[in-house]
């Protein structure tokens, strides 16, 4: 089944070229089913790149999904045209009345800022609180996962001296959890971050469970028992070249970055990256949509947390 996205969104051409089924609003109105309503709060600088990555993963299910792209504030984006933002993004105030089956909050390049120094932290906390009342299941990615742990549970991250960057092997701790259904016992996933929250901090929160972890990266997949919140500390949505682009950017900026771990064959940055995370990335999003969203959400979204 397709994802429903705004007409003329640039991502549509990319996804169509990959034989991914998308439909615009006009065609979707002719479908006599109740689609899932999913919002994406996109905090990443390159909005279009992140849109493509996430929409690609959301499309890999038999469910029809209506997608709303949401912006945190009205600040001009440095890497995405205001024309694009005005055409395809909703201000939070315009969708605050809605209820969603699922919400994705992306990461953001804010590693060295204290949460309360982030210029949109008040809006961020407002939206996270809103999601607890208006969204069946919220998926927090990378920085957003740490921000949510701090906001809801007071768990502070610490910053590594060196950047955790590369593709790391992880182990599944709870294979019967639906979020990792179909996963291999060991699997790979990309990370690109300085922040770390210790596994013990996750484990001391009642109702949270570390589902997958790595010796190098710590907790990777964490979820609440009620399926309302999912914390992903890495980037399963990354394209094959994303870490390469980040490495080249930091190299050109004179930051002397380390070569991403387990990414280039023989650690040779001139060689094409070795891609070994995409199947589990797709499965993770498919499982979230199916078991944490579709199987648990009310048919009438107005009944969601009406109290």
From TrEMBL:
Q: What organism does this protein naturally occur in?
A: Alteromonas arenosi
A Pfam family per the record? HTS
This protein's source sits in the domain of life called: Bacteria
Q: What is this protein called?
A: Homoserine O-succinyltransferase
Q: Which SUPFAM superfamilies match?
A: Class I glutamine amidotransferase-like
Site residues (Important for acyl-CoA specificity), renumbered to this chain: 111
Q: Where does substrate bind?
A: 163, 192, 249
Question: What keywords are annotated for this sequence in UniProt?
Answer: Acyltransferase, Amino-acid biosynthesis, Cytoplasm, Methionine biosynthesis, Transferase
InterPro entries per the UniProt record, alphabetical? Class_I_gatase-like, HST_MetA, MetA_family
Q: Give compartment(s).
A: Cytoplasm
- Active site, per annotation: 142 (acyl-thioester intermediate), 235 (proton acceptor), 237
| One example GO MF annotation | homoserine O-succinyltransferase activity
| Keyword Metal-binding belongs to the record | no
The chemistry this enzyme catalyses reads: L-homoserine + succinyl-CoA = O-succinyl-L-homoserine + CoA
Q: Its annotated pathway?
A: Amino-acid biosynthesis; L-methionine biosynthesis via de novo pathway; O-succinyl-L-homoserine from L-homoserine: step 1/1
Function in brief? Transfers a succinyl group from succinyl-CoA to L-homoserine, forming succinyl-L-homoserine.
Is Transport there in the keyword field?
no
Cite the EC number: 2.3.1.46
Record's NCBIfam families?
Answer: metA
Q: Which family does it belong to?
A: Belongs to the MetA family.
Q: Where is this site: Important for substrate specificity?
A: 192
